[in-house]
Amino acid sequence: MGWFFGFKLHLICNEKGELLNFMITPGDVDDRKPLEYKAFVEFICGKLVADKGYIGKNLFERLFVDGIQLITKLRDNMKGALMSVSDKLLLRKRAVIETVNDELKNVCQIEHTRHRSVDNFATNLLAGLIAYNLLPKKPSMNIEIIDKSRLID
Fold this sequence. Notes:
Blueprint (H helix, E strand, L loop, with lengths): L6 E7 L5 E8 L11 H4 L4 E4 L7 H9 L2 E4 L13 H8 L2 H12 L11 H16 L20
Parallel strand pairs: 3-4
Antiparallel strand pairs: 1-2
């Protein structure tokens, strides 16, 4: 009696907690796979903060060519890798995406296991994403971007 649709929801959000893009993949797909699609990362410029699941030299180089700097925590066996202080501070703010995921699951109710069809699953997921976008207050990072050209030497 029941169906199980094993899917992963991959999200890209900005520092204000606004969703920029999303992709649904089967549950057995590697986390790095969606970043290989240009259409998924077309809204990104600058820095992309991710968890350790996104570590990969090929992915880092491919994104770097497109003008995206991938920032992840370092694994214990990654010797000699240097990271700027600002990147380390950004990694501490990575909890924003976890908070976004939590609000999507608990407030917008996208984590629902009793779907009877794929259409019902897709409808519930899209309704939850729309509901999240309509929330008046979203989790955000309190960062201020400084234009270095306006600083006096």
